[in-house]
Design brief:
Layout: E1 3-13, H1 19-30, E2 33-38, E3 44-51, H2 52-61, E4 70-78, E5 87-89
Parallel strand pairs: 2-5
Antiparallel strand pairs: 1-3, 1-4, 2-3
Helix pairs in contact: 1-2
Length: 90
């Protein structure tokens, strides 16, 4: 089973709209670990680690996010990371 970690930088109206919490809920449904955190420039950074198919599905979901989000860009980058035990927001 292939496992991978991908970092996403999500741009748009993604702070103050429950984006991190919704991402955490979706990640936990998919069995993906990592984190979602606000960046000072208004973007959200998401680290996704898990089965390649689940990480891909979460990466696609990031374009939608919760109902009040307005995503304009998602930049994905494969990373070598120590896989976390859970999915955190911060």
């Amino acid at each position: 089973m292939e496992r991978r970690c991908v970092k996403a930088l999500v741009t748009g109206k993604v702070q103050g709209v429950w984006y991190r919490r919704a991402t955490q809920e979706k990640a936990l449904q998919l069995g993906v670990t990592g984190h979602a955190r606000n960046l000072p420039d208004g973007r959200v950074e998401v680290l996704m680690c898990g089965r390649a198919e689940a990480v891909r599905e979460l990466g696609e979901w990031l374009w939608t996010g919760p109902p009040d989000a307005r995503v304009t860009h998602v930049e994905l980058e494969g990373v070598e990371a120590h896989e976390p035990d859970t999915f955190m927001t911060g």
